Structure formats: C-alpha cells, structure tokens
UniProtKB/TrEMBL annotation:
Pfam families: PhyR_sigma2, Sigma70_r4_2. This is RNA polymerase sigma factor. Residues 101-153 form the RNA polymerase sigma factor 70 region 4 type domain. It comes from Devosia geojensis. InterPro entries: PhyR_sigma2, RNA_pol_sigma-70-like, RNA_pol_sigma-70_dom, RNA_pol_sigma70_r4_t2, RNA_pol_sigma_r2, RNA_pol_sigma_r3/r4-like, WH-like_DNA-bd_sf.
Length: 169
C-alpha cells in the first residue's frame, strides 16, 4: 500500500500541469487535483494493478473535470467582484510571450474532446495507447482527434503554433 501512495505522490506534478492546462485557472486546477487525490486515496482498494497508476489518476482527474464542466453549465459561471480588473489590461510586449498566449487561446477554443487528447499527448507526453486508455476511446479515435486539433490550431493561429504541437510516438 505504501508503494501505491508513493506512486500517487510522484504523479502530483503531472496532474497539476494537466489540470492547469485544462482549466486555465490555478485555483480551480488545484481543487481538481485535490479532489482527484482524495478520490484515489479513498478508493485505493479498488485499484487493480492492470496498468500504471498514472493512467488511473489521469482517468479520475479527467472524469472529475468533465463532471465539473457539466455541473457548471447547469448553474452558470460566477465571477467575484474583486477578480474583475479595475483598469484595462495591456498585453505583454515580449513576442515569445505573445506566441504562447496565442497558442493557449487557440487550444482553449478547441472542442473539449480534442483539447483533452492534445494536452495529454503534447503537454504530458503520454503515449497514444495510454492516452486512449485514459480517455476511454480507441487509439484510432485518439489519433483522429489529435489530427483535427492540430489542423484547427493551424487554421486558428496560422503556422505559429505548429512546432510546439508536434510529438514523436
């Protein structure tokens, strides 16, 4: 059991990265990871070592994220008044920062199924087979979603984001 907890602990940075990329909000992402870890630890007796702990945790996190999206669509989104900017925001002057911001906006515009697949493979470096297992889809479907996501990003942002989105599998 101690080995399982150590494996879970080793996955926390990757879970945080993926959650932040999905939610684009550090606080929401941290809550999502915490919920994921709570669920994993509470149900660790259900884990059967048929696959890596990492895939099991990503599956839990992704299911919690999707459940949260469905719930937020039903109740709507609220924004605290103190979170509203008091002055107009100006974009950063660095070209590299702008390119990353453009890529982030383009990824955010993708349909959820494409975004989830792209972030798992590109951001987390998960293999196609493992990503397909985490998402609960056939590997061919995963590859199709990745292809559509990359094509959409090329259309949305020209070719500026293409080098960042290539993976070798």
């Amino acid at each position: 059991m101690g080995d399982l907890i150590a494996e879970i602990e080793a996955c926390v940075p990757a879970l945080r990265r993926y959650a932040r990329a999905l939610t684009r909000n550090a606080d929401v992402a941290d809550d999502l990871v915490q919920d994921c870890l709570e669920r994993a630890l509470a149900r660790r007796g259900l884990f059967r070592p048929q696959g890596p702990v990492r895939a099991w945790l990503f599956t839990i996190l992704l299911n919690l994220y999707r459940n949260g999206l469905r719930a937020s669509r039903r109740r709507g989104e609220t924004v605290a008044i103190e979170d509203m900017p008091s002055e107009p925001m100006t974009p950063a002057a660095q070209p590299g920062h702008m390119a990353l911001a453009e890529i982030a906006r383009a990824i955010e515009a993708l349909p959820p199924d494409q975004k989830e697949a792209l972030l798992l493979v590109v951001l987390e470096g998960v293999s196609y087979a493992e990503a397909a297992g985490i998402l609960g889809i056939p590997q061919g479907t995963l590859m199709s979603r990745l292809s559509r996501a990359r094509a959409a990003l090329r259309i949305i942002g020209g070719t500026s984001g293409e080098p960042y989105l290539r993976t070798v599998k």
